[in-house]
Design brief:
287 residues; alpha/beta; Rossmann fold; 3 domains; 4-stranded antiparallel beta sheet; 11 helices; 39% helix; 22% strand; globular
């Protein structure tokens, strides 16, 4: 039965080559993402993951010169024909280094920047700032300088600055790359608590997360897309996707317990993937 959910992202046969390069960084990308999905895009370094994010946001072709072909739509908007400013009202991106998008003297000013550029009434801007800071739990940092914040706090400030635009799609490009393991877990939990909180208010938000630390997101996403050599080679539910990636020998960070499970599951007659090594050993003992 065909899904009735709206397609918020659609790429059709998209290929791109950066200016000065002799080869495509992505080739013949076909991708559909529906409203409310939580999708992980992963793959080896340099495989084209971030390029896909830049196309969805319209940064390609408007900010990155190169040779582009195919079609790309976000919430019905033709990415190639609409300016980034229009796309940014519905789709936001949090970059690897949040310092790149925090540029004012206070967290409050950064969060207010987007709504101010929409020329919203002052009361509405204040309401959005208050709402966004509360959703990510940094009300106490309202008047702090972004330069004085920790990496995790800067990420949350960057997320708040996107939330204030009331986006329907949020893209996270390697959000944990600057964080230690504990802060990474905390950030991922915050992202999905945020999605849950927004959905309780009736607002569906689509999450697209580009990340190589698969274990952080495995229990949160409903779909994993694996990119290799500029092409989508796997697109499925998390366990199926990782098993396919394992069989194809794609160098991605499959959690060790799943690597063991994939190696022995047929020989040992195992069916259900374990959550941890203890569960795997228990399953083996009961065979």
């Amino acid at each position: 039965m065909q899904s009735l959910r709206m397609k918020v992202v659609e790429l059709r046969n998209v290929s791109f080559r950066y200016a000065g390069s002799e080869r495509n960084v992505i080739s013949n990308i076909n991708l559909q993402i529906e409203e409310g999905e939580s999708v992980l895009i992963t793959g080896p370094s340099g495989c084209g993951k971030s390029t896909i994010a830049r196309i969805i946001m319209g940064l390609i072709p408007h900010s990155y010169p190169g040779e582009l072909s195919g079609e790309a739509y976000v919430l019905g908007m033709n990415v190639f024909e609409n300016p980034v400013s229009s796309i940014a009202t519905k789709c936001g991106i949090v970059f690897q280094n949040p310092e790149n998008q925090l540029f004012t003297f206070s967290v409050e000013d950064d969060v207010a920047f987007g709504p101010e550029n929409l020329a919203l009434p002052r009361d509405e801007i204040r309401r959005r700032v208050d709402e966004s800071l509360k959703l990510v739990g940094i009300e106490h940092l309202r008047y702090s300088s972004p330069n004085s914040l920790s990496g995790g706090e800067q990420q949350k400030a960057a997320i708040a600055s996107i939330l204030s635009m009331h986006p329907s799609v949020m893209i996270f490009d390697e959000p944990t790359s600057m964080l230690d393991p504990s802060s990474s877990v905390s950030l991922v939990q915050s992202i999905f608590k945020l999605k849950e909180s927004l959905e309780k208010t009736g607002k569906k938000i689509t999450l697209i997360i580009i990340e190589h630390r698969i274990s952080l997101l495995l229990n949160h996403v409903s779909r994993i897309i694996i990119v290799s050599d500029g092409r989508i080679v796997v697109d499925s539910d998390p366990i199926t996707a990782l098993y396919e990636g394992f069989k194809q020998g794609i160098p991605i960070n499959i959690p060790p317990v799943l690597q063991i499970f994939f190696r022995i599951k047929d020989k040992c007659g195992l069916e259900n993937p374990p959550k941890d090594l203890k569960e795997l050993l228990t399953n083996l003992k009961t065979r």
